[in-house]
Every structure is written in C-alpha cells, then in structure tokens.
Amino acid sequence: MAKKYAALLRGINVGGKKKVPMAELRSVLEGLGHGDVQTYLQSGNAVFSSAEKDPAALARELEKAIEARFGFPVACLVVDGEYLRAVAEACPFPTAQLEGKQLHATFLSEQPGADRFAAIDQAAYLPEEYRLGDRVIYLYAPNGLGRSELGAALHKPSLLKGIDATTRNWNTVAKLVELTGP
User: Fold this and answer.
1) What is the rounded CA–CA span in Å between residue 177 and residue 182?
2) What is the rounded distance in angstroms from the CA atom of residue 180 to the CA atom of residue 165?
3) Hey, is 115 helix, strand or coil?
4) In terms of Cα–Cα distance, which of 80, 114, 108 is closest to 165?
C-alpha cells in the first residue's frame, strides 16, 4: 500500500544557484515511479506517494536522480505524513498564536544528542528560543529567520556535523502536513 511522503530539498533555488524547476522535480519523482506528485513553493518541497517503506532509501534515490538530471548534488530529506503530523503536534510553541514566519522547524537526518547543544546559552539569545524534538529543532524567532542570531548559531557546521538539516517556516510545515494527510 502506498504511503504519502514529503521530500525536503536543501539549498535549491536560492540566489540563482542550484536551480531546480518544480515542474522538472515533479518529472524526476514521477520518473522514479512515485504517484500523486505535487510540489509546494519554489524552495524544494515535494509530496508524493510510494510503496517504499524506507524514507532514507527514498532520499538516496532522489538525491541520485537529481544529480543525474541537474548535474549537482542536493541533500534531500524524505519524511512521511505521520512523522510530519507528529512534529506539528509536538511543537512546544503556541503555533496558533504566532505568525508562520516566527516559528521554524529544522528537519534533521538523524537525532543529535542534546550534548551537541550544551554550549548554546539560550538566555543570551532571548526572546528567541529553541527546543529539540524528534529529529527536529523547533525555533521561535520573533523577528524572522533572516535576522535570527540563534538560528545562525544552531546551523553552525560544527554543531550539525554529519547531519543533513533543512529548515521550513511553520506555514510550510502546516501545508506539508495537510498535503501528506489521509
């Protein structure tokens, strides 16, 4: 039985670099045999259904197909609809009271130990805050991600070494939950 997934591509269509037109991304996914393919926005969000049960295998397959089609590597995270709903439900911040641009979810390819974040003095970044969830970092940035000093600190390569990470604002998270729903 097919399951619904979201593919989250990192670092495409930003500043004219790593251009991946969404119509071509849909074509790549369909060419891999996936059904119900849709894209959302231009920032690398795709939803599809597949009988494959391993999201990591789907991500590796998509990464290879994208590199073959476009000539450059793109890190992809693939998560299923159940996981996306669990991330949304577990959010420690009041999602209904915040603007989507104030709240972000950084999806991670694996669960980091809390010790990786021990050096971050949360009090130094207030009113910004973060919480670690299940393969996700929730970030409250009241002035947006582009101005977030805490967001920059959380994305230092030394902190996330060996982990693929990609961030979406809460509006996008909510839409992906909707698109991967039953």
Assistant:
1) 10
2) 20
3) helix
4) 108
